[in-house]
Please model this.
Amino acid sequence: MAKTDALDHTARIARSRADKVFDLCNYTILSAILLIVLYPLYFIVISSFSEPTAVNSGNVSLWPKGFTLEGYRIILQNHDVWRGYANTFLYTVMDVALSLAIMIPGGYALSRKELDGRNVFMVLIVFTMFFSGGMIPTYMVVKNLGMVDTIWALFVPTAASAYYVIVVRTFFQNTLPEEMLESAKVDGCSTFRFFFSMVIPLSAPIIAVMALFTAVSQWNSFFSALIYLHDADLYPLQLILRSILISSQMSAHGTDAVVDPETIVEAQRYAELIKYALIMVASVPVLALYPFLQRFFVKGMMIELRSTSNE
Model:
């Protein structure tokens, strides 16, 4: 009862004018930063629904002008876009599964003090963060492994990030006490059973963070496909959208000398419209994941920051 009265008394303490001014300055600064970050994204959204002429003339600022879905119609009627969606979804799922299968057990193993030579492994892992063979040696390795023009070239060479492995290892070091493993061993629990029955259920936040980061990276990736893939049927979404954007810009600049000027002007209008619509088509699926993973994502990021600071 006394504790409750003390809390009520603390809540009733009047805040000074300096405290209120400080809070007001904080809210003002944070609101300005929020607007600076969000407005470019909002501008892309409203521009994708506006007439290109209104966008180019600077008449679009807060609301769409000349509402149109023509850009989305042009993109979504392209069958290559849907094939790219299917390919990218497949590549993302496989990349996330393979990356987690490597990084979670690897990070856990490196966090255990009883692992012989773990410091040597850590030195080798950190070394790869500063030095790499480069694009040409990497391409030669992928080619000699027979993965060129196959889906494996898109995620096997980059299946495990050195930085992510270090983050996972630090997470396990700071969240799994040694006493837990010792108690499990006393009860006759094997290492594998302890990992799958106790470590994995307690690692949902870091698994969600690593899965989200890996999925976003793979979803937005196009350079690996540009290098390793030659079969258009295997192209991911980003590479197909890039091809659509380049072709629309070429049409807008009138590469053919006999093209009618009115056709060039119309192509320029659609090129601007398609540009903003392409950004939305590529971004919406990833943005849709955040509400479902937000709880784990925020918790995992806080644990990651605490783990890094303790390290």
